[in-house]
């Protein structure tokens, strides 16, 4: 039994962290799909324009109560994202452990990184977007395009389109691009936190989409607030390392990323508080 478990772990470890395609990965504008600035801005523009166009078209042609049946598509979409997020979480966890194992000797020479936690928060200056963790960062970036479909499901099924949804999806896609383009520090922890929460949240959405009971509290919003809160706490850990250890790679992108995370957290909290206020108001009116 123990032999089979060991063999299974070795197989998983090979395919998710030691495969030549993962070890030799390099972020390149000529070889990596979707790696140019023009592609990024075109994709975001197409996404926003398509979502607004579909929403306006349905508003003109159909009544607000009319819903478009989507069948099992939303449930399958949630299941796919949950499984993909779980694979990315395991892959980048194994890859980070392998990178720490293989680069410990280099830390003694640079003196900018002395522990695994410092490496997770602060890449040494000169870090290039290549190798295991950046392969999974690239997969995470590609998975962000799959997340965009949820906006269209919301428009078609619920006939709703909010500025927050468009802004949030666009900014998250933009930030994941910055991680690769500038080899930004802290991205490994950010991806670990995000994929762990996504696997849980989208698994929950699949659970409720197939008719199983939902939680008695706003589960998804609470998870979003938890994720953003953890991200902001970890962001503050980069600052002392940057100033005391000689600098962290991609600090400009990190600063921009921190501002965007703060904006998203503010919008999520604002939405959450408004939702709580409206639900309490409705309950008081029914008494």
From TrEMBL:
GO terms for cellular component: endoplasmic reticulum membrane. It is found in: Membrane. InterPro entries: ELO_fam. GO terms for biological process: fatty acid elongation, monounsaturated fatty acid; fatty acid elongation, polyunsaturated fatty acid; fatty acid elongation, saturated fatty acid; sphingolipid biosynthetic process; very long-chain fatty acid biosynthetic process. Its main location: membrane. Keywords: Fatty acid biosynthesis, Fatty acid metabolism, Lipid biosynthesis, Lipid metabolism, Membrane, Transferase, Transmembrane, Transmembrane helix. The chain crosses the membrane at residues 37-63, 75-98, 133-149, 161-180, 186-207, 219-239, 251-273. GO terms for molecular function: fatty acid elongase activity. It comes from the Eukaryota. It is a multi-pass membrane protein. This is Elongation of fatty acids protein 3-like. It comes from Rubroshorea leprosula.
